[in-house]
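Q: what sequence does this backbone want?
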């Protein structure tokens, strides 16, 4: 698919989202809330497209009462009473405990930082530390969150074989881990070694103000 075709497909996707959202009487902010994302992260997701986060668009499709294929490719309705009409997936809200269980002890997620003109989102590997999430990055790197700054952190997963997916979103504030004991303890934990190159020596803690999650069944 060439660049012009990709841009056309992206425009059609955004148009389908906009049309369906208006049919449901939802504002963009209300749709973001239904999906379980902050409005800024939701807008950034739309700008980046399906390649950035397929599971994010799965959640958008389900919130709109559509299948992923209907959202991305357009509807191909079968005649009434004829086979071929796809079953709609079910979107379930997760409890906070279920969210933390899915996060596990470590993994790869995305940190969204509130920079102008819109949030910047970076993949990071993370650790769950108590009721917070920490990640390590280069002190001069782009993924550094300002102490006290508002951030969003998202982890998602799709099982294509089981046609199941989930996502967890944490909205909160960031702090830099500066004490020696905590730095040493975190450095000894598995799962957060440097994995994308560079020297990563600054630990950043995401302190949740809100933890939410969605699971999709029967995609």
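A:
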């Amino acid at each position: 698919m060439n660049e012009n075709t990709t841009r056309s497909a992206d425009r059609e996707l955004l148009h389908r989202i906009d049309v369906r959202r208006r049919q449901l009487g939802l504002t963009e902010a209300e749709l973001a809330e239904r999906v379980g994302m902050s409005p800024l992260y939701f807008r950034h997701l739309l700008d980046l497209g399906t390649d950035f986060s397929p599971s994010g668009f799965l959640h958008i499709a389900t919130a709109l009462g559509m299948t992923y294929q209907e959202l991305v490719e357009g509807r191909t309705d079968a005649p009434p009473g004829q086979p071929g009409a796809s079953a709609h997936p079910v979107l379930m809200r997760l409890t906070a405990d279920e969210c933390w269980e899915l996060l596990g002890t470590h993994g790869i997620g995305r940190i969204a930082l509130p920079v102008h003109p819109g949030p910047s989102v970076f993949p990071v590997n993370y650790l769950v530390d108590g009721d917070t999430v920490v990640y390590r990055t280069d002190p001069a790197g782009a993924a550094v969150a300002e102490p006290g700054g508002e951030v969003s952190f998202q982890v998602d997963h799709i099982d294509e074989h089981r046609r199941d997916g989930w996502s967890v979103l944490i909205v909160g504030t960031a702090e830099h881990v500066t004490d020696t004991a905590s730095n040493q303890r975190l450095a000894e934990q598995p799962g957060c070694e440097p994995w994308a190159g560079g020297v990563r020596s600054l630990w950043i803690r995401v302190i949740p103000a809100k933890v939410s999650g969605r699971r999709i069944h029967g995609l």
